Amino acid sequence: MKNNLSNSTRLILLHPYIQKQGSSNRLWLLALVSFLTLAFLATLIYTRESITTTSTVAAVVAAANPRLSASVSRALIHYASNSNNSDHMTYTDMKQISDALRQCSQPCNLLVFGLTPESLLWRALNHNGRTVFIDENRYYAAYIEEKYPEIEAYDVQYATKLSEMEELIAAVKEQARNECRPVQNLLFSECKLGLNDLPNQLYEVEWDVILVDGPRGYWPEAPGRMAAIFTAAVLARSKRGSNPKTHVFVHDFNMKVDRVTSDEFLCRENLVKSTDTMGHFVLDRMDSNAVQFCRNTHSPPSNSS
């Protein structure tokens, strides 16, 4: 009788403990689930508020900094084309570039090879966008930046000569599957026509408009524009952003070297308009495995005037 009582007592004593321990575990589990739920809800609310705030700020900035009106753009082009500088572009050529900038989604990224009498014009027309200039004269680039602090300019050393154009183009064709691919990061390239010594950040920018108006190229020892045109072609085809198209303008299109190099790397099927002095190309990005710049190198210009 004593043993049975003892056993019963132990059962009576242990049973509440076990029940209490189970309740405690369930309470901890319930608390953990509640905490995770509250954390998730807090994160969701914060994320939505953050997105809403960001969108609101972007809308306010866009409203506070609208693009230039058409009348202001026309006025700027008018006065620039009627300046006393004999080296300035024609009104028609300036307007082509202005139109492309006005069609560009803001903020627009404009890359210009060459510091010219129109440099301040391009910076003004690309209102609220980023405009970068590349020039072969380091002293002139430094002078322009000092005189006009709003100008972003960098110097680059060209290792090309106008007299070597045919040889350089042939070298690119031989290396089209390796160093001179149409799609690549030129920062790591050893292609003879690829500019790989620009500031690293410039290779990551999704350029919407590129203007080739430099370097100099009117005598055999001059650098010519082969490297600038090739680099523009690769930057346009290597884009990874939401805008797959890039407007590329080549000034002095009447020069043989500019036309021949443009035919090779920008391609005639991409030529949407041309004048005596300006070629306007629109390039689409390419697949990373592409090994050919042009689909049809013998096709006529699509819309020349």
TrEMBL record:
Q: Which UniProt keywords apply?
A: Membrane, Transmembrane, Transmembrane helix
Descriptive protein name: Polysaccharide biosynthesis domain-containing protein
Ribonucleoprotein as a keyword? no
Q: Which GO terms describe its biological process?
A: xylan biosynthetic process
Species lineage: Eukaryota, Viridiplantae, Streptophyta, Embryophyta, Tracheophyta
- Where, if anywhere, are coiled coils annotated? none
One GO cellular component assignment for this chain's record is: Golgi membrane
Q: Which organism is it from?
A: Salvia splendens (Scarlet sage)
Q: Spell out the InterPro entries in the cross-references.
A: IRX15/GXM/AGM (IPR006514)
Where is the protein found, in the record's own terms?
Answer: Golgi apparatus membrane
Q: Topologically, how does it sit relative to the membrane? A: Single-pass membrane protein
Q: From the record, give the transmembrane residue ranges.
A: 27-46
